[in-house]
Amino acid sequence: MSKGPVLFLFLILGLAGNAQPSRIILAVFAHPDDETTIAPVLAKYGEYNQVYVLIATDGRFGVTDHAGIDAGDSLVKIRNQELACSCRKLGINKPIQLGLPDQLGSPEGMGAYFSHLATLKKELAKVITDLKPDVVVTFGPDADSGHPDHRLVGIVTTEVLLKDKWPANLSLYYFSWTKQQADKFPEWNLNYTHQTHLNTKISFLEKHEEMSYEAIRCYQSQYSEEELDRWIGRERADPLNVLYFREFATSKEIREDF
Ligand SMILES: [Zn+2]
């Protein structure tokens, strides 16, 4: 058989499992475990696309009572393993880690902060240039819990992308909880966006949700067994397997008045 029919057959088989051709999806977050916010969606897209998670900080200050691990290098090592475990369970590529300190070194003063901020911008721009993603997902202004690192990473990702003209294929999405979703976890005091501002609704299957639970269970240093069970139990009890995003869009039309 010549190569033509074989290639055609592969194309048909490939498209049969997925309505869209394979795309490159880059999710940019602050801490190892932030990707759990959209884990079922990452698992879903990981089946037929190249999905990458970029984590800006090394999570060295993520100390918890139940784990009893001191802040610093030993915690960083464990959190790196947990992040790698999470990406494996979600069926996506190995994580991209910039390894910057939590809070971008701001406790050391503004000099340290601006220096790490410059590294974040440079490294993020390099990853975007190299990967050429079709889709970039990050935190919007509500930023999950509103942690300053979450907000910073969302804003800096937007800033880096806005510095250049975008290739025609590129889209930027902000992840947000709805009020109903945030209310599932009152103890976390999650932020939310009104549903009228969320223009992208992505559903996922039970199997993707199960993969997300496996990923969540990687984070033993961050959550006790009891917390993990409660978290997963509440997600299981939620029949709506949907996450919401807002596409960042600018008008092409130049206006001369507000
Ligand atoms: Zn976080």
Question: Which oligomeric form is depicted?
Answer: single chain
Pairing-aware structural class of the strands and helices?
alpha/beta
Largest sheet: 7 strands, mixed
Our measurement of the CA-to-CA distance between the termini, rounded to an integer number of angstroms, reads 63 Å
**Could you tell me the strand content as a percent range?**
15-25%
Radius of gyration: 19 Å
- CATH architecture descriptor: 3-Layer(aba) Sandwich
Sequence of secondary-structure elements: HEHEHEHEHEHEHHE
Whole-number count of domains: 1
Q: What is the 3D form?
A: globular
Q: What is the fold named in CATH at topology level?
A: Rossmann fold
**Bound chemical compounds:** zinc ion
Q: What is the mean pLDDT?
A: 92
Beta-strand segment tally: 7
Please bin the fraction of helical residues.
40-55%
Instruction: Provide a count of the helices.
Output: 8
- Uncertain segments of ≥5 residues (pLDDT<50)? 12-17
